[in-house]
Structures are given as structure tokens and as C-alpha cells.
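On clarity, I found the account of how folds are encoded harder to follow than it need be. Since the whole study asks how a given chain folds, the encoding of that fold should be made plain. For illustration, here is how one protein appears when written out as sequence plus C-alpha cells:
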Amino acid sequence: MFVNNWASMRSLTGASRLPLRRILGSSLPISVSRKCAYSTQLSKDKKTILDRLDPAPDAEGLKYYQNTFQQPQIAVVKVGGAVITDSLGELVSALKDLHKSNLIPVIVHGGGPQMNQRLESEGVEPVYEQGMRVTDKATLKIAEEVFQSENDKVVQALKTAGVSAQGFVGDGMLQGKYLDFAKWKYVGKITSINQPKLRDLVKSKIIPVIASLAAGDEGYSLNVNADVVAAFLARSLQPLNTVYLSPGGGIFDDQKQLLPEINLKRDWDMLMAKPWVKFGTKLKIEQVRDILADATDGDAKVNLTSPQHLRRILVNDLAQLQLGTTVHKGEQTTESSSAKKRIGIIGARGYVGRELMRIIQSHPNMDIACVSSRQFVGQRVCDTIEGVHIPLKYTNLSPDELGTTEGIDAWVLALPNGLSETYVTALQGAHQSKGTMPVVVDLSADNRFTDKWTYGLPERYRSDLTKAKLISNPGCYATGAQLSILPLKDSLASPPVVFGVSGYSGAGTNPSPKNDPAFLKDNLIPYALSNHIHEREVTRQVGQNIHFTPHVASWFQGISLTTNIQLSRPTTSEEVFEIYKKAYEGEPLIKVTKDVPLVRDNAGKHHVCVGGFEVSATDPSRVVVVSTLDNLLKGAATQCVQNLNLALGLEETAGISTE
């Protein structure tokens, strides 16, 4: 792979070996120090390459250089767009030296800064969704032109320097599919690479220069983040080295301080909790984690550095000299692993199951120990879900197998309605004789109408949940509707009327008009006009009838609920605001505002926002409350983690961002 056998000979966290020049004494001329260490077997070209390194490599680095590159090796080098603009000459010089040393780089490049400049010059306002550029047809055309231009620059510069190179811009080297067309349009993820072609080029000592555009199935190019492409190539090609190049040369914190080392096992949870780890920085760290997921050596590493230090991968001392950020896979201690609660998930292929795994993978006190999905059995989780880096393979557990699976602290049943009973019965039967029972959280509606299960709305049943073994997770609409009504439930004069609109992820993954973006375009679909299951659920919890009509809209995730509440007495907007503010004071996942909350401000967030609080001018006993929440998060996965935290004796919001 990209891991070399010499990495274990160095101390990565303690004192490092001194460069040879410092061992021999800085008063010696540099050429003398180097000459003392050089083997006579090195060619003149290779000696010249080493002469360019400052400080000079130590004896261990020289030994690594002599032994490693007797046969051609592969390196994956991701080149940021700013490097092409600012440091192309330096980059090409270093690539030429790698090439001469028998290390053939496979180059992946983007063109973000160039894209931004071009879009600005043409008056196109870039649109971002969750930190990622939305690429419509007009933006895609510009991307194709920009990436072709940048690719030509790199290839031509290499050829001018006497290095054979071949460029690829969305012409079949990378195959991809839409990441999520409804969200990001012509943005893709990689499904395959032309590996035989790449290996033939490397064998012929021709440097491939690959732009981060993939060919899609419908004849369109797909814009793919270059960090994602580099990670896919690294996992496919298993290169000796993987390097991410940027002008800054590493990962910097919010104080602009370089992080010289990241140990993923040790530092992952801490990093993911940092507010500055978001968007591009978060994506980059996630991709590096994907690369390292399969490595069996705890010293496996990926380097993030600048072009001026690229040559040092030849002597394997970037980490030693702290030239950039070195990311290690790291070791997991037995104590740390055993301290975490082990979670099993049944039915993980749906949208909620995916979000649940995204949250738990970064949870400081939980590990996913088992994932069952009939569709994905045998595949790795990290290969099927974007942004999830768990190398665990899916199983397909039957109810009986579930009951005999040991060492699980909590099971989450993410199954369609009507399927949970056999699994719960098997668990109860298997654990009855032992006198123990793992926590079970059922995400379906199967157990929301029985007192044998604890209803999992923490804002109302927090104390009960700390003692619960069987927890029924509330529905998404039901969560928002209850939180809209509960502070006024004792003053209701008639059934509240709830108008709910959800993004189409609420319709699940099985194809239907309710989750077809084309059918939903410029459309709003009402369904289950009366007696919707969430209408019955809220009625049971509030203790009075409510009227609810759901609708599905063209966005992907997020719910808006407008609730008309007729009170038994007149009130004012200010009084209602104060009632809700007091009712939810101290609640970590509820925000109360006088403004009308918007879906777009809440999608991807873990909280419910309740606001509006308008009182009718003609009927001062009529109040309108608006609430928004993410149907996949607080409406499902986040609430599940809240409930798991409470039932397992953990901090309620552990693993959940409250920002």
C-alpha cells in the first residue's frame, strides 16, 4: 500500500532522529555531510536530487531511498487548484525528481479558485448546499472549460521539463454517478477508475494528470471534489505514498496554527467536535480517514504538505521534520475500545440509518459493532454511505441470530412498520434466562401506541428514558407537532390544526411519486388527508384530538409545521412567546424565536426551532405557531441518539452538535 516498512522504525510522537548534518556537526560543508552518507551505488541524477533536500536526509532516510525505489513505485498526489496558480514551477520540478527516482506520481487536481474567479467574472453567483458547490448545467460547462485549461497547464509544464505526461478531463478515466441530483445537480461521486490504463501509464513511466471530472451514465460530466477522487485512487491503486498538496502545506486550526500530526484513533472525536472542522477541512480529513481505513499497520499515514516539501517523501521524513500535517491511522487501546458502548443497527440502508451511522461514528462513547442490511450484506459500510468511514461489513441477521449475538449494549431497529416484533421477541427470549436485556430503540411506529414501551421524546419523558430498556422513537412530524402544542395543551378550546410539509426524504428510498424529484418539481403533494399515523400519535400524547394533513415538497430534508391553536382564553403574542421560552428553557435541542423559522435554516441541524407566535387581530384566542426540524435528524436519528445516551447513562447530547 502507501505504507512503508520504515515507518515503524521512527518515533511518531516522541523524539525523532536528528538529520545527518546535525549528527556530524553544522560546521561541516553541506556537500561533505551528504557525501559521507551517500552510497556509491546512487546514480548522478539521484545524488543531485538528494542535494536539493534541505536539511539533508539522515542515514535512515538514505537507506530508505536506496532500498525502496529500485523498482517503479506509485504515489497519488492531489494538487490543489491554488498550487497550479501559485507554485506550478516548483511542483513540476519536484514531480520530475520523483519521476527520476522511480516514484511515478498519479496527479489529481481540482480548480476551485480558478472556478470562483471565472464565475465571478461572468457574474454567476455560486450556490452552496451544506458547504458543497451546486453544479447546474451552466456551472458544469464552466467547470469543464476551467479544468481542461488547468489540466493542459500541468501536462504542458511537465512535457516542457522533459517528463512524459498525459492528461484526462472527464473522458472515461473516472466513472461516476450523481451524489444527490436534487441537492447538488451535476456533482458526482466516483464509482470506478480505469485501473488497467493507469497501471499501463505508470509502467511506461508516463505521469497521468487527472482532473476531478467523472463521466456519468447519462453522457454528462460530473463535478467531483478532488480530495474525494484522490482518496478513491489511493484505495484502488494501493500506492506507496498518498500526498495532498496545498500552498499552506497542511491542516490549520482556527488560530491558524499548523497541526503537525493527527492520530485518527486518538484525535478523531476531538477534531469532529471542533467548530472549525467543517466543509472542505472536514471533507479532507474524512477522505484521509477513508484511505487509512484498510491499513493493518497502526503507523499507516497520509501526508498533507506543500510543493516545496514534496521531494521529502523520497526519504520518508516529512513527519520527522513536521513539514506539513501527517495523519496516522493510530492504535486503539483496549481500554478505550471497551469503554465505549457497542451499538447494533438492524435495517441500515434507509436515509435514517445512514444519518444514524454518521452521528455514531463520531460519538465519543459509542461504537457501531454490528450493521445488518439484506441489500448490502458483505459490503463495507464506508463503501456504501457518503461521509461514513466505518470499514465494518454488513451482515444479514435473522431475528434468532439477533437474539444470540453477544456483546451489544443497544440495538436500533431501523425497519419498516410491522417488522420489529419478531426481532424484539427473539431478543427478549434470549436474554430472559440471563436476567439482562440490551436497550432497544425502535424507529418504526410499531410500539408508539403501547405503555409497554417508553415513548422517546426526551423533552417530556427524560426521567423515564434513563431507566428504559424498550424505547419507541417518535415520528418526525409527531415530534414537531407535539413541541408546537404541548406548552399550550392545558388551554386548548378545540383540536389544533397542523399543516405539515416535508422534504421527500421522508417518503423513504423505495421509488414513488412522493420521492421523485422530477414529479415534485414545481409541485406540492398532499397525502393521507385524514387519520395519518402521526395524527393518531400526537393525539395520544397530547391527550386531545388534533387534525393533521401532511404534504411532501421538492426539497430533500427538513419539515415545516404551521399549527393553528384555538385557546379557551384570549392572549398576546408576547405572552405566548414567554410561555414557550419558559417551557423549553434549558432544552439543548429546542430553539425558541419570535421570528418565523425557515426549513433551509434547520436542514442538517439537530434541533427543533419553534417560533412565529402570531395571535389573530380579530380573534385573540387564536394562536399560530410555526416549527421546523430536520426529519432525518431530530425527527429520527438525532432523537434516537438522545434516547440511547439517556438509556445508557451517557450525557444526553454526547455526539450531537448543539450549535
DSSP finds 24 helices and 27 strands in the chain. The two ends are 39 Å apart (CA to CA). The longest helix spans residues 137-160. The mean pLDDT is 88.
